[in-house]
Design goal:
Layout lengths: L3 E8 L5 E6 L2 E7 L8 E4 L4 E4 L1 E6 L19 H11 L8 H13 L2 E9 L7 H12 L5 E7 L10 H10 L4 E5 L8 H15 L2 E6 L3 H18 L5 E5 L8 H14 L1 E5 L10 H6 L4 E3 L16 H11 L5 H10 L23 E4 L4 H7 L3 E6 L2 E5 L2 E2 L2
């Protein structure tokens, strides 16, 4: 017997079907009205159905969302923002379970059912941020799945003791260890990367490196990352976050790097920020390089921007990369859903038999219309459970 049947929905804008859900997974898709299953039925009202959104790059430990407005401060450099955050976070209760829970609830309300979150690990807070994020996820009872990247926001080599904290985090269940601008922040890219990859290889976790350095300095670090990925046998477990330099390089240099990165099995995540160089997305797609979209931080001490809606991030990606055709616009939505499966260790994430029953319904003509308007999420299902209706959470 089915646990639940979601009736009369249009997967990816196609013909209406009934989606039969059992044990938290999609068991079958049948023509609308043909399910005939006993058990609970939820009327989809002919709405467009998409898979739950996957947020491939977030910082759910940092936000002051839900608190009174905090004016932006600090110097507008990476180092300046790090220093400002360190000075102000304690007064805002960052990190804390309540702060992280508020962010996760906002994600879920917007149809995000899985998130990969970088969580600060440093000498000031130790692993307390990871505990806070886990506590927030547990409070939602599995409604949103959270993978944790232990993230050394304040540097690695320049802060003796941080490598030990990253190792502890990996031993305690973090799925990846992070890095930050090995050249610009630590001034020693070889030593930072060697330290991170040693932990990853020994603990069996991944590596996810924030890399803001541009031009050839960024390209040099991409080469170091690719070489270490091959040497450590970590194909499919290493990601570059941001990686702005990739879009800034001459075409020939870019193509050679793409070949090297794809051969090593390195993935990419982006928040498609305004003013950055577009990524060579066609070359990445054609080489099979996974690309994921993320919200980054929302309303935190780095920036007041963001609202947790990954459809808006997909629209930013489409604008930045001048996607106008139906195929291109559909690809942007795929980046926020099916194509991001690997970022949260899922073999498949789609409206298909065998996939986890993470389903989002919106009132839209087609996928492209949904991307342009980012309409309210009329229903969000996570693991076969309805967790939001009419834009409001039920958990």
């Amino acid at each position: 017997m089915a646990d639940l049947t979601l009736t009369n929905v249009r997967p990816w804008g196609m013909a209406a079907v009934d989606i039969v859900v059992s044990d938290g997974k999609i068991r079958d898709l049948v023509p609308a009205g043909a399910a005939g299953e006993p058990g609970e039925c939820v009327d989809g009202g002919g709405l467009l159905a998409l898979p739950g959104f996957i947020n491939a790059h977030a910082h759910v430990d940092k936000s002051w969302w839900g608190r009174p407005w905090v004016s932006y401060g600090g110097e507008s450099t990476i180092a300046g923002r790090i220093a400002h955050e360190r000075a102000e976070r304690d007064a805002l209760g960052i990190p804390g379970v309540d702060n992280s829970l508020t962010v996760l609830r906002e994600f879920l309300r917007h149809g995000v059912t899985a998130v990969r979150s970088h969580v600060d690990v440093d000498l000031g807070i130790g692993l307390r941020g990871i505990d806070a994020v886990r506590g927030a996820a547990e409070a939602l009872g599995g409604a949103i799945e959270v993978e944790i990247v232990a993230f050394p926001q304040d540097g690695v080599i320049r802060r003796p003791g941080v490598l030990d904290l990253l190792d502890q985090a990996a031993a305690n269940g973090a799925t990846s260890v992070g890095g930050l601008d090995p050249a610009a922040i630590d001034r020693d890219p070889v030593k930072q990367l060697d330290g991170l990859f040693e932990i990853a290889e020994r603990r069996g976790v991944g590596v996810d490196i924030h890399l803001h350095d541009g031009g050839e300095l960024g390209a040099f670090q991409f080469e170091l990352i690719a070489e270490r990925t091959r040497r450590a046998g970590l194909r499919g477990k290493v990601n570059v976050s941001h990686g702005f330099a990739l879009g800034e390089l001459p075409a020939g240099r870019q193509a050679d790097l793409l070949d090297e990165l794809a051969e090593a099995g390195v993935s990419w995540s982006t928040v498609a920020p305004v003013g950055t160089a577009p990524l060579p997305w066609r070359g990445m797609r054609d080489r099979g390089m996974p690309v994921g979209l993320g919200t980054d931080g929302i309303r935190d001490l780095w920036s007041p921007f963001g609202d947790g809606d990954l459809l808006r991030v997909a629209l930013d990606f489409a604008r930045l990369h001048d996607l106008r055709t139906d195929e291109g616009l559909g690809y942007a939505v795929e980046l926020a859903t099916t194509r991001a499966a690997g970022f949260v260790h899922r073999g498949v994430h789609d409206l298909a038999a065998g996939a986890r029953a993470d389903i989002v319904l919106v009132d839209a003509e087609n996928v492209q219309d949904a991307l342009m308007r980012s309409p309210r999420r009329e229903l969000v299902m996570s693991g076969g459970r309805v967790v939001a209706r009419n834009g409001e959470l039920l958990v």
